[in-house]
Sequence to fold (449 residues):
Amino acid sequence: MIPRYTRPEMGRIWSDQNRFQQWLEVELAASEALAEMGVVPAEAARLLRQHAGFEVARIHEIENEVKHDVIAFTTAVAETMARAGYAEESRWLHYGLTSNDVVDTAQALLLQQASAILLDGLGSLRAVLKRRALEFQHTVQIGRTHGVHAEPITFGLKLAIWYEEAGRNLARLRAAAEDLRVGKTSGAVGTFSHFAPEVEERICARLNLKPAPVASQVIQRDRHAWFVAALALTTALCEKIALEVRHLQRTEVREAEEYFSKGQKGSSTMPHKRNPVTCEQICGLARVVRSNVQAAFEDVALWHERDISHSSVERVILPDSTILADYLLAKTTRLVDTLMVYPERMRRNLDLTRGLVFSSPLLQDLVAAGMLRERAYSIVQANAMRAWEQDGDFRAAIEADPEVRAALPPERIAEAFSVERQLRNVDKIFARVFGEGPGGEAGAKDRQG
Fold:
């Protein structure tokens, strides 16, 4: 099933409603943990869990006056307790906590929610790449280096490279998300001046988080920088795939192209156009995610135990980067899933230079037959350059070259121009990528995320 281009749940994660809900979850977990340790009355913790709530509009209204979002939040929650008849119990809300105990810990919850979606999306892309790699495992294509014909490959190998890279991105993103699965309630400068580390451990356990071993007023931002960098690498793969399709879709190449739907139009003035607009969008938006990496790294160094310079940055780059990464993964998955591939054109392009791309095995065979390498290189290159410059038939020229004929019998010359010989190890490469064992197939585990 082709995923939708956008997933509303990712946008919902970063909504004010969900953000404040996670703040409330942290507050309630803290009250309950403190109640277990006899610091907060158990009945107060129970009533907070039962009646504490908020209205987003009211939080914003209070914030406009007090200019502090967490104070606005706690005031709005206290108002809901008062309306329920439990104003006295509301005094235990936010007890012993500083603002970033709540904000940073809740942000960890938000990032875990976002990461789950991204890991699923990356797993979906990897599954599609695997299917299409196997589909085109033996579809012969010319490999290009510097944009110039090099030696034969298969289109499946290109897809296998992307699949394997997606696996590394999956591992990186999973590790970065796990590194961010930490909370902190150690107070204004991280010294647990209000209650012991054991309370933090209980609070984090309730939220399925790990306590940060040590913190200042904030969780250290190298964790967040790694996460954004992992997103940038993931979306760089999306761009890598899209850029390749853009090159293959050029009129002179036309070996593959993104799906062009019925009724779609490519140009307002040129009806013949089928432009790679999806690929270009992927390439463009990946730049935005990469640009956020610098901002994330700038957030690592803060003044002393904390300043607020990182906060405004993260309110932009974390939602934007995760939403864009989700969007680009879905776009790229659909691109690969519906990609139009033209094997006959691939073969025609491979044959375009009339054998030039077999210069390397020919050189090797001449050396193996006893010719000095410099002489063999000179003979092959001289014939190749004439073929380039005169648009000639390289194989015919080689078959007529007296020095080559003296060194190699006709059947050995023919073997030098064999595509099958060049690609004889493709199945072994696929076994490495998709087979069992180290470096091999782990798709089922990957999909479990």
Remarks:
- The chain has three domains: 8-92, 99-260+273-349, 356-416.
- The domain at 356-416 is CATH 1.10.40.30 (Ribonucleotide Reductase Protein R1; domain 1).
- The two ends are 19 Å apart (CA to CA).
